[in-house]
Amino acid sequence: MRDMSTRRHRQRSLHSWRRTIRPYLLVGPGIAILAAFFLLPSLYNIWLSFFDISLFEIRTGGTFIGIDNYLRLLGQPRFGRVLYNTVFWLTFVTVLIRLVAGLALALLINSDTIRRWRLSSVSRSCVLLPWVTPEVVAVAAWQWLLHPRFGAVSQILMQIGVLDEGIPVFVQTSTVWLGIITILVWRELPFVTISLLAGLQSIPTELYECAHVEGASKVQAFRHITLPLLRPVLAVITLLITIWTFNNFLYVWLATRGGPGSFTQVLATELYTQAFTNYRLGFGASMGVVMTLAMVLFSLVYFRTVFRRSMDDR
Amino acid sequence: MRPFMKRVLCVLAILLAATAVFARGAAEDPDHVNLTFRQNDPPDETGGLFDSVDEFSEMHDRISVNVESVPWGDALDQFIRESHAGGGPDVLQLAFVWTADLGRDDLVMNLDSLIAADPPGAGLDGFLGTELGTVDGSIYGIPWTVDTFTIAYRPDLFEEAGISEFPDTWEEFFEAAVVLSEPAGQYGFGFPAGSGSDSGMWFLVNYYLWSHDKFLVEEHNGEWRIGVTEADIEEAMRNFNAFFESGASPRTLIGIDSWGNPELVGGLARGDFAMSFFPPATFRASQEQAGGVLETAMVPRGSVRRVSHLGGRALAINPNTDHPEEAWELLQHLISRDTFEVYPQFPAQVPALGELEFGPGEQGYADQLPHAITFDQYIRSPAPVSGMWAATNRHFGSVYSGERTPAQAASALIAELEELLFD
């Protein structure tokens, strides 16, 4: 009798132990993968940032120099210019344009007129087209389109008499950012548009009907119904595209490689130049750490202010 | 699960495993060696290289060679990453200026023992530029091809412009470029003026400085120092910027890094440009498009001399290879006379170079090669050549685009060179 009771007790405790351990077993592989592919490389990058080490010396190791790389980075006069390019031109301007244009496009696609003309599916597919184009192809195509001598845009503008000669968009300081911003916005706009369209379609139509009955104009309905209810979606999208754009390397590198001169150099391209052209791996690593810290700081402030308020309003 | 189903699944699993094992065994003959050779040239410059590699595979029953192509711009970084991770190709093509940097950290194999056992070609003394692949007396790369840049031009456009003699000095060269730009839609000089880290602007700048006996960095009494003043750099910047300001070169060139860009190669062939600046393989591509009307001439003379760089490619073996002897056999084949019969490059071996037949319009290369010097001084300096290369292009580009004045850019370039040299 006692044996049976002991066995039952053992089985129960084994069952209880299994129940306790199961969640860890389930999430364990995921955490292990995250640690192997994200945490360890990040820690290694932080470790490298304290060394004077060239690309050739990874196996042999460099010289420990403490925070010298950070001091040198922050003391470089051109770091301010690179930071300004990254924060203002690459991130702020393109995020703002994408949010405004994305909202306008989403409202257009969601409008009664588009629905009445049965163009909803076609317009959604058209909006998605740039998103499915690889970045490399998008940049190459735009470079050809905007080529001052052979590009379609220049040819058309010259034929209709707007221009006397083509504008070399990517080699003039007055136009180069316009070129990069055009490519980036064209390629990345669909994400914002489609996300906001999903947000718009989740707003109950009864709210608009009530507002209409109460005599609200379209502008008032947009201001007091659409915008407040879209705020959570807008908050998430803004956070995501800001982080993605701030860290983006491809558009600037493929379009101008940071040129002409160093006029469009951003943090990601400067990091690449330092680590893989000047071979200063430790210095490049310190730039990577600064970029990560900047985005962590931005995310914390954003969460505590805009994001939390948007969620509370909901 | 029912016992029958279990048995069926077991049989299927055993069959699958056996098939995989036998298939692998059949595909992999233990004596068979698979080598990977990596080259970096664009397709229009590789000529019969692939045929020569195929010929090597056909001559060796137990060796197969796979040729990989990686563009020059990515080749060094990619190989370093692979090498640190224990991978990479068995045999690889390198720019002359990379070999010593890689050799210093044993990222390419020390070839001394292989050379001693089976010397390449007619012996190591017969190769040009071996000093560029030598570190502490050991050889890490075998010079494979040599080249230099000359000015390629269209004699018909010179004739139309009434210019009978090819310009001799940099000043005459600029004046001729302005005259050649007078017809509508035609430009005097097309050159890669991009700010990219591997832009061809680097070569033009150095030819100009060297012709005035100035070097970006130089060794003086055993100490390294900056070999140019801000005034020297500023003057060079003003002179090259004058091509854009006078309309002798279109501003679109400020965005072009590669001398092989279709706008330059096709531009000279079509007659959009009267002159351009090419290495031999690129010239041949342009000559083919132009129908054989192009000519070449030596680069302009400075206050001291006329000079260009003796560049080229070396071949090296990856220390991670499992087959160093077979890799050495492949390397020997690639530097052989058989390969150069189908591979349209200038060999780095002096006897073979002496027997070279220059193609139509290539007299400029024949004249220029004896005036070419290597980047040896830069390679031996503590400043990485790629860093100096990138900084030079970037600061010259900042003048062309109007971002900085020549004085500002010259000062910034000197500061960056000092940082690269002394930091």
Low-confidence regions of chain A: none
Radius of gyration of chain A: 27 Å
**What percent of the residues of chain A sit in helical stretches (DSSP H or I)?**
over 70%
What value does the Rg of chain B take, in angstroms?
25 Å
Low-confidence segments of chain B, given as residue ranges, are none
Q: What number of domains of chain A? A: 2
CATH class of the domain at 30-146 and 311-354 in chain B: Alpha Beta
Shape of chain B: globular
The tally of helices of chain B reads 19
CATH superfamily of the largest domain in chain A: MetI-like
The share of residues in helices of chain B is 40-55%
- Strand and helix order of chain A: HEEHHHHHHHHHHHH
List keywords for this structure.
heterodimer; A: 314 residues; mainly alpha; two-stranded antiparallel sheet; 13 helices; B: 423 residues; alpha/beta; D-Maltodextrin-Binding Protein, domain 2; 6-stranded mixed β-sheet; 4-stranded mixed β-sheet; 19 helices; globular
Walkthrough of the structure:
The complex is a heterodimer of chains A (314) and B (423). Chain A is mainly α. Chain A folds into two domains: 2-39; 63-313, MetI-like fold (Orthogonal Bundle). Chain A has helices at residues 2-48, 68-75, 77-109, 112-116, 120-132, 135-145, 152-159, 176-201, 205-213, 218-246, 250-255, 267-277, 281-313, and strands at residues 51-52, 63-64. Chain A has a two-stranded antiparallel ribbon. Chain B has 423 residues and is an alpha/beta fold. Chain B has a domain at 30-146 and 311-354: Periplasmic binding protein-like II (D-Maltodextrin-Binding Protein, domain 2, 3-Layer(aba) Sandwich), CATH 3.40.190.10. In chain B, 47% of the residues lie in helices and 16% in strands. Chain B is built from 19 helices and 16 strands. Chain B has helices spanning 3-27, 43-46, 49-59, 72-84, 96-104, 112-117, 155-160, 170-180, 201-211, 230-245, 262-270, 280-290, 324-334, 337-342, 350-354, 363-368, 376-380, 385-400, 406-422; strands at residues 33-39, 63-69, 91-95, 134-135, 138-139, 142-147, 150-153, 187-190, 217-220, 223-226, 273-278, 295-297, 308-309, 311-317, 346-347, 372-373. In chain B, helix 10 crosses helix 19 (406-422) and helix 18 packs antiparallel against helix 19 (406-422). The longest helix of chain B has 25 residues, at 3-27. The model of chain B has no long low-confidence stretch (mean pLDDT 89).
